[in-house]
Amino acid sequence: MALDGITTELLTRELNTTLSGGRIDKIFMPDKHTVILHIRANGSVKKLLISISPSSSRINITDSTRENPMMPPSFCMLLRKYLGGSRIVAVKNPGYERIVEIVVSTTDELHDVKEMRLVAELMGRYSNLILINQSGKIIDSAIHVDCSVNRVREVMPARIYDYPPRQNKLIPDVALRLLEENKLPVIDEEMGRPISKALLGSIMGLAPNIARLICTVANVDERQPANKLSDSDINNIITTSLSFMRSITDSRYTPAVYFSEDDLPCDYSPFELVGFHHKVSTETISQSIDLYYEKKEHNIDLENKKQRLTAIINTALNHAVRKAEIHRKDYDEGLMADEYKKCGDLILGNSYMINSKSEKITVVDYYEDPPKNITISINPSLNISDNAQEYYKKFRKAKRKFEMSEKYIKDDNLAIEYFRTLKVAASACSCDDDIAALMQEIKDLSSDKKDTKKNSNKNNQGNPNATVGIAKSGNKSSRALREAAKKANMKQKESSRKNEKPLPVRRYESSDGHVILCGRNNIQNDELTFKTADRKDWWFHVKGLPGTHVILKTKPNEDMPSDSSILEAAQTAAFFSRDIMIEEHNSIEGSRAGEIKAEIDYCPVSHVKKIPGARPGMVIYEGYYSIIVNAIEPH
Length: 635
Hints:
By secondary structure, the chain is of the alpha+beta class. 41% of the residues lie in helices and 19% in strands. It contains 14 helices and 22 strands. It has helices at residues 5-19, 74-83, 172-180, 195-202, 208-217, 231-249, 285-334, 337-349, 384-427, 432-456, 478-499, 522-532, 563-575, 578-587; strands at residues 23-31, 34-41, 44-51, 58-62, 87-92, 99-107, 113-121, 128-132, 138-141, 256-259, 265-269, 278-281, 360-365, 372-377, 506-509, 515-518, 538-542, 550-552, 598-604, 608-610, 619-621, 625-629. A six-stranded antiparallel sheet has the order 15-16-18-17-19-22, sandwiched between helices. A five-stranded antiparallel sheet has the order 5-6-7-8-9. Strands 1-2-3-4 form a four-stranded antiparallel sheet. A hairpin with a 6-residue loop joins strand 7 (113-121) and strand 8 (128-132). Helix 4 (195-202) packs across helix 5. The longest helix has 50 residues, at 285-334. The chain starts with a helix and ends in a 6-residue tail after the last strand.
């Protein structure tokens, strides 16, 4: 949500009360759109965040910490020069605009007291942060706007600062006087528009959602034109708007952040909104803004991490698929081995009647019953014996391909299945712990490959490369020393990683008190199924697809859990495998939306076996039941 004028005015009042008289200690600029002022006020240090990002322009007090660049930007150095150590005189808003002015008092080299203004224009993609001296001239701004960008209003150093052009609207104080006179606060130009848009176009700083909310509370259709409202509708609008305007002038509001059913932040407002799943109330508007963007940025950061992780897994999966295609091609070519051998045999068997000058020969195929003539291609530049040997070479090559590709295809299929399980785990990540657990599995997988390669290079006596790194004097060269330092560093990282506490599995509780456990990745799936779970516990997994292992813990002296617990555990298994189910569903020709249901297999843990030599998380099971459920997020 972008700041509206009314919220900015109320926020400015809060900041003025909190920051007036404070001293600016430090100034940081984590990125080109964000400035953070450390202000010592009322016995504590408060961090004032000013963001002019096009997607999240705002100003609020925050507790979050951000990483700063080693070399501060030039605008940050300029702010430190002019504002460092200055006192905040007041925080103002010029008439319900989306502008916040921080007026500071400072002294120059001659110890003369001067006032300066730091103006934050929080207007979406037109946002800017401008430093103005006592005479009203711009010292500098975060974003320069010259005549090639805006011919009406330049924002450049040494120019006189002008406010953005004002709109022909009623400020809330004027609108309040009209409402007290029992008049509709709508200007003449807006009377023909729908009432919600007429209010929006007439009252300065009014947000679209508040205009719609006024119509909802007044029980008036927001699409009805303002000049066609009935007397009762006008009275309802006046009554509701009067209460709203008085709450603005009296600073009576209840700020809150509003969330969707998936716990995603949807909006924040100082006034009560409707139509959201739940809300989190705060004491100040500043806290609401901070909470909203903290949640939003965390979700964006989590989504970016998931996308990077999914890209890594997709790269490995595509590589495995390409390898499998090559090996299948070799396998198909290997099936021709017997045909190549037969051609060589037939060429030698019919050599007495073959003319070696032709490119194709017709011979009798005595392998068939009854024998029949077949045509074989030969190279006319070679004799009969050499042509036969060419076919024998093809036979031996195809035979080797067949034997090797048959083994490789099995390994490729296991690798593809494993990478699909990683993809499912990545799509099911819902927090940073899930991402960290999956990244750890991928790192362990790469380190296992390196260890395998290292072991294969052992016992290399007689290898001339074994002495690489030894100088003529017999001492180790600098290259060998660097390699030794690298290995020592790797060992140190491995030991520190071993000391790290492993992340716990996901833990939920069913409606009747049964514990439900879910693995975050394939390694946790293995540990959960074969180490954590008891033999009498029940194991759940989506049928025929990669997915999360889910364990339903049984209670003492209980052979079979309740039906409700089984249903909830199955729904949990379906939820953490929903993305692969959607992908599989969309790949089926003629599939339609709204038909996705998951078939979940479940059995006692004692019926689940580890596949020998397979990747973590890959199992076989027997003696199972099946249930068809919808994917529902556990709580």
